[in-house]
Amino acid sequence: MSFFNKVLASVGIGAATVDTKLEKDRVFPGEEIKGVVEIRGGNVEQQIDDIYLSVNTQYSKESDDKKYYVTAAIERIRLASGFTVTAKETREIPFSFRLPLETPVSMGKAKVWVATGLDIKNAVDPSDKDYLNVKPSALLDGVLNSITSLGFRLREVECEQAPYHLRGKAPFVQEFEFVPTSGVFRGRLDELELVFLPTSNNTADLYFQVDRKARGLGGFLAEALEMDETNVRLSVSTGDLATLPQSLRSLLQKYS
Fold first, then answer.
1. Contacts of 193 (CB under 8 A, 6+ apart)
2. Which domain, by its residues, includes 157?
3. How many structural domains are present in the chain?
4. Full-model pTM
């Protein structure tokens, strides 16, 4: 390669491109994801230092009473490193990986995507982004249905920075916010917030924040001081789904 072509390659002119082809984009946490990364050479030969996949989402953080969003990599996979793509060459690299259990589901504001990148020294990183439609697991779906069967409506779903006591592999948690619209908890609770943390394919820890309705002067003072909120933890499995609505009803009645 001439010096002029080396300069062209280093600044990304006539550079390689990357395209990821997923077998399917409708997936479940814990499921195996398969596909092929296609690399097309540009007008000049290029040295590729790394090719990688990352599963990403965004979550909200607060600082100085301001809310902003940051991107988090849930998983990162190196596919290959240290190879050359010649001009006009097409190369395919198959891949498979298991979607992490802590991947948020595609509900509300939550979005999940696979980013594919080529690490080329001194060049702009050519990248590709493919969105995933992450569906709830059978256990999460059962939990959400159990809550709605008690008269709650799902109002908002968002990924937020994880509090210290809930921080695991990921720096965020996905929060499901419900409001009671009918049933025994209407007028007794303001809202119910849920964080679902899977511990295996068939088990999870549920963390609830129960926000009681203010009643009388004492209730309004408690609400002003945020003393009307109670945090509750419950471990569940797929074997509990048949009786989960009754269990949740009894649990919430203790704090409403």
1. 175, 176, 177, 178, 208, 209, 211
2. 138-253
3. 2
4. 0.83
